[in-house]
Design a protein that fits this description.
The structure is a single chain. It contains 16 helices and 8 strands. By secondary structure, the protein is α+β, with helices and mostly antiparallel strands. It has an 8-stranded antiparallel β-sheet with strand order 4-3-2-1-5-6-7-8, with helices on one face. β1 and β2 (93-96) form a beta hairpin. The longest helix has 36 residues, at 3-38.
Length: 474
């Protein structure tokens, strides 16, 4: 029949479209879920490794001495070395190379090696979706651009969306329920969603755009435009030796007494061209930092000009704090978490609405149930395995996640699968709390995170039990 090849072509195209939509929806959901959690990056880092000595004040002379002694070992030196200074959110001092990281005590002695394996897995999931970093960041940034388009097109496609901002039909038709939840949260959080999409798109595309611009308009010199935006590195030739971090910090008190250093980078470490860069927060400013350049002896050279450069430069250097909620204190973090959770629900319900509109169910319903409710279970199981056995957080997450999805595909009943995974998630979170309490010493640091985990377990468990009763009466 002449029509059969065309029919088969359209059927395969529709199947590919469904797969693409589901892959993008799953990626968006994981990014939003991990982003909601990573707002509390500092708190989670302290929770995962509570035994580290904490302090706010430190002696720059002690820091400089320990830094230079620690990195005299050639096996520890890499082209870039860092001293991450204590802050209000994370009152710990850390020395790091490009391959490893260690905590330093206030007296200059070295503390434990950093082992925030689960938190770093969570951060990599949000930034790169565990893909190779360059391609992962570009893909995640593309999803940020898509989020902006979805927000704008959503308003254009629903002219009554503002008028119906408080319409919420729960407990009845599932499609109407999911639609109302999706639309209401979309309206209430639209400014936040736009900001997250724009700033998220920037991270992966910025250097690509700058590189292309430099190649086209600056005779192929892609580093020139990057230097114009982020500053050029000084050209130095100094005798080999250490770096005078203490003198650089002392000079900072005269150069910018109102600013607070948060990070020190030693560039080209171990070479004659090495130099010190001090990152300092500017009070009342949204920029990540103003950066000051010093030679190896701590003599001031220049600053980057992020605080008073051209408007575009200041805006670009403010995107980090805007995207991750690193301004305004703990209250802003809580607000970001609430709005991030709303965006996570929007991502989940968007695909659920599409699935509910179809005439008949299919394996896609089972797959989506596993994607949505397998993630909380996988995150808590991976954290528990990492704490208890030192297992790879990455392997633990994906093994648990794929097992959850496989269970849903095997059972072929998304209602029961959804309820099962909700109860598994609640149980695994409680097991994580028990494992943490058993293995690690009591600490005030753990209380806020532990309390939040317990509330999360109760909420997810209640949802699972409610869905069980609803299923039984259906």
């Amino acid at each position: 029949m002449p029509g059969k090849p065309a029919t088969e072509f359209f059927r395969q195209t529709l199947s590919a479209h469904s797969w693409l939509g589901l892959v993008i929806g799953a990626a968006m959901y994981l990014i939003c879920l991990s982003g909601t959690l990573i707002v509390f990056h500092e708190e989670l880092s302290r929770w995962e490794q509570p035994e580290v000595e904490e302090f706010s004040d430190f002696d720059p002379v002690v820091l400089s001495k320990t830094f230079n002694e620690w990195f005299t070992d050639d096996t520890r030196i890499t082209p870039h070395l860092w001293a991450i200074l204590p802050t209000t959110d994370l009152p710990r001092l850390r020395l790091a190379s490009e391959t490893d990281s260690w905590f330093m005590n206030a007296d200059g002695s070295m503390g434990p090696r950093e082992r925030n394996h689960w938190v770093e897995m969570l951060l990599d999931l949000h930034l790169y979706l565990h893909l190779p970093k360059t391609w992962g960041m570009i893909f995640v940034s593309a999803l940020g651009a898509m989020l902006v388009a979805l927000v704008i097109s959503g308003f254009l496609a629903h002219p009554k969306i503002i008028r119906d901002a408080f319409k919420l039909r729960l407990g009845g038709n599932r499609q109407l329920e999911q639609t109302d939840i999706h639309n209401r949260l979309s309206v209430w959080g639209a400014p936040f969603h736009l900001m997250i999409g724009i700033t998220g798109a920037y991270f992966g595309f910025a250097l690509v755009i700058l590189g292309v611009y430099g190649y086209v308009y600056d005779n192929g010199d892609t580093q020139s435009i990057v230097g114009d935006v982020f500053g050029n590195e000084p050209e130095l030739s100094q005798p080999l030796g250490g770096v005078a971090i203490d003198r650089a910090l002392h000079n900072m008190q005269h150069i910018a007494p109102e600013q607070s250093p948060i990070l020190i980078t030693v560039h080209d470490a171990g070479t004659e061209a090495r130099f010190i860069e001090v990152y300092a927060t500017a009070p009342g400013r949204l920029i990540y930092s103003e950066n000051y350049i010093f030679d190896a002896d701590g003599n001031y050279i220049s600053r980057r000009g992020f605080s008073d450069g051209v408007a575009g430069k200041q805006i670009i250097y403010s995107f980090y704090r805007l995207h991750f909620g690193r301004f305004g204190g703990f209250g802003v973090k809580v607000l970001y978490a609430v709005l991030g959770l709303a965006l996570t629900i929007i991502s989940a319900t968007g695909i659920s609405i599409w699935l509910a509109k179809r005439r008949a169910r299919s394996w896609l319903d089972d797959l989506w149930a596993g994607i949505v409710w397998g993630a909380p279970a996988a995150l808590s199981v991976s954290a528990m395995l990492t704490l208890a056995f030192g297992a790879s957080a990455l392997v633990g997450f994906w093994a648990s996640y794929l097992a959850s999805i496989g269970l849903c595909l095997w059972r072929r009943n998304e209602r029961y699968s959804r309820r099962t995974l909700q109860l598994v998630s609640a149980t695994s979170i409680v097991s994580l709390i028990a494992t943490y309490t058993w293995l690690l010493p009591p600490s005030a640091i753990a209380l806020p995170i532990t309390a939040t985990l317990l509330v999360s377990a109760l909420v997810i468990g209640a949802i699972g039990l409610f869905n069980g009763r609803a299923t039984a009466t259906a």
